[in-house]
Amino acid sequence: MSDATPTGYARRERKGSEKRQVGIKNALRMLPQYPIRDGTIPAGIFCPDSLLMSMEDSYCDAWDRTDVIDARTRSLFTISMMICVGNVGNQFELEWHAPGAIRNGATVNEIEAIITYARKFVAGPAQGWAQGTIKKALTDHGLLTPGPPPDLERREKSGSEKRKIARDVLRRLDPTSELLKVPDEIDQNKFGSELDLMILENLYFDSWARTDDALDWRMRSIVTLGMLFAIPRLELARQHVPIALKNGVTVKELEELILHAATYLGFPIGLAIRSAVTEALQQMPK
């Protein structure tokens, strides 16, 4: 096989043995103790075709596609999905992908930022479970490093201060959002109206306004799409497609994210994601 990484249709034409050669290289880079070293499946192993598929369609087909999205971005996107998939996280995958992300160039601070962000999407129990799994995995691999101290000044802001900042962020992200029309008080005539204030404070202030930490606007959009794909809440993912484009994500990168998501979430979900993103792109002004 040529040293040049094939792209486009050429990568679809590789034989299984060629794909496994590439897949093992990528797997060993991310996780040096990967049990398969040369593509040979030991006799008597349970479900051997699954291991071959893993090397071919995950570690080759997904992880070798670095012509549009690099391995670091792909790792952070994968972690965001694995924290949220099934609303309870995927601990086995996180045990692999958290150390793999560091070896792909991500930082512990970036992973911490994703964990913090995930709390707004899957709430404390699932986020806490994922946090514990990632901490143990990084510790076991000798990759856990001290992060920044907590931002206590941010925590001391009042609700009204948080909502003011949140509205400024929301005007940048989505100036047509209905949340911008929410009065700065609890509407006694609207059922559950306090939820709107909580979303402004907890999502748009506590998360989206944190662009001074490890995740910039573009990466936060990628992580957001990963979480919404995995939950899955595709109607909300549609709303975030134009926001992602505004934040610097390209249409070609969106295609790559969909292909990667299908590998980890399943092809039925992948088809649904593709339809949702396509619809969002078609509805955008030309």
> What's the architecture of the largest domain in CATH terms?
Up-down Bundle
Number of strands: 0
The Cα radius of gyration reads 20 Å
Please state the average pLDDT score. 91
CATH homolog superfamily of the largest domain: AhpD-like
Strand-and-helix sequence, N→C? HHHHHHHHHHHHH
Strand content: under 5%
Question: Which bin fits the share of residues in helices?
Answer: 55-70%
Instruction: Classify the fold: give the CATH topology of the largest domain.
Output: AhpD-like
Q: What is the CATH C level class of the largest domain, in words? A: Mainly Alpha
Low-confidence stretches: none
Structural topology:
Elements: H1 9-12, H2 16-30, H3 48-58, H4 71-84, H5 91-103, H6 108-140, H7 152-155, H8 159-173, H9 194-208, H10 217-230, H11 234-246, H12 251-265, H13 267-283
Give the key terms.
single chain; globular; 13 helices; AhpD-like; 3 domains; 286 residues; mainly alpha; 0% strand
What is this entry, summarized?
The protein is mainly alpha-helical and 286 residues long. 64% of the residues lie in helices and 0% in strands. The chain is globular and about 65 Å long.
Report on the structure:
With 286 residues, the chain is mainly α. It has 3 domains: 1-67, no CATH class; 69-144 and 217-286, AhpD-like (Up-down Bundle); 157-208, no CATH class. It has helices spanning 9-12, 16-30, 48-58, 71-84, 91-103, 108-140, 152-155, 159-173, 194-208, 217-230, 234-246, 251-265, 267-283. Helix 2 (16-30) crosses helix 3, helix 4 crosses helix 6 (108-140) and helix 11 packs across helix 13 (267-283). The longest helix is centred in the middle third of the chain and has 33 residues, at 108-140. The protein is globular, with a radius of gyration of 20 Å. The N and C termini lie far apart (42 Å). 34% of the residues are buried. The mean pLDDT is 91.
